[in-house]
Design brief:
- This is Nucleoside-transport system protein nupC.
- By secondary structure, this protein is mainly alpha-helical.
- The chain contains six helices and two strands, in the order H-H-H-H-H-E-E-H.
- It has a two-stranded antiparallel sheet with strand order 1-2.
- Helix 2 packs across helix 3 and helix 3 packs across helix 4.
Length: 152
């Protein structure tokens, strides 16, 4: 039953996307199907294999260490603010979010985050044939004119 509900929810989301689309004739279903298939394959690899579970545990460990560093920083700055045994939403949730946001800002400034996002996008665009590489305009959506040029 849970698989039926999952399939039905995917179909409802596709139906809603078609319903609100302003250009229904130009919807390309193949890239959507390929990305959905890639998502299922990645989910199976990450959740059903030992290597996937090890990878998820490693990523969770890295973020666990980051949150531990954030909590130590909060305790250093605001250590005596609360009574023993009390918890504050501001100190335990919001300040680690500020720490992680600052870390993301640093990664973006050093162009590490952009580099990662660029190649994830490149891989997904290549796997779905969503765009055509053009050295002048970079990636652009495939149009009927570019498809004619490729077929020659």
């Amino acid at each position: 039953m849970k698989y039926l509900i999952g399939i039905l929810s995917i179909l409802v989301i596709y139906a809603l996307a078609v319903l609100v689309s302003n250009n229904r004739k130009n919807i390309r279903y193949r890239p959507l199907g390929v990305m959905l298939l890639c998502q299922f394959v990645m989910a199976l690899l990450l959740l059903k294999t030992d290597a996937g579970n090890t990878g998820i545990a490693a990523v969770a460990g890295v973020f666990g260490h980051l949150l531990a560093y954030a909590n130590e920083g909060v305790n250093f700055v605001f250590g005596g603010l609360l009574n023993k045994g009390e918890i504050s939403f501001f100190l335990s949730v919001l300040l680690p979010i500020v720490f992680i946001s600052a870390l993301i800002g640093i990664l973006q400034h050093w162009r590490i985050l952009g580099f990662i996002i660029k190649y994830i996008g490149l891989g997904s665009a290549k796997s779905t044939a969503w765009g055509v590489w053009n050295p002048i305009t970079r990636w652009r959506r495939r149009s009927s004119a570019s498809l004619k040029c490729l077929s020659r």
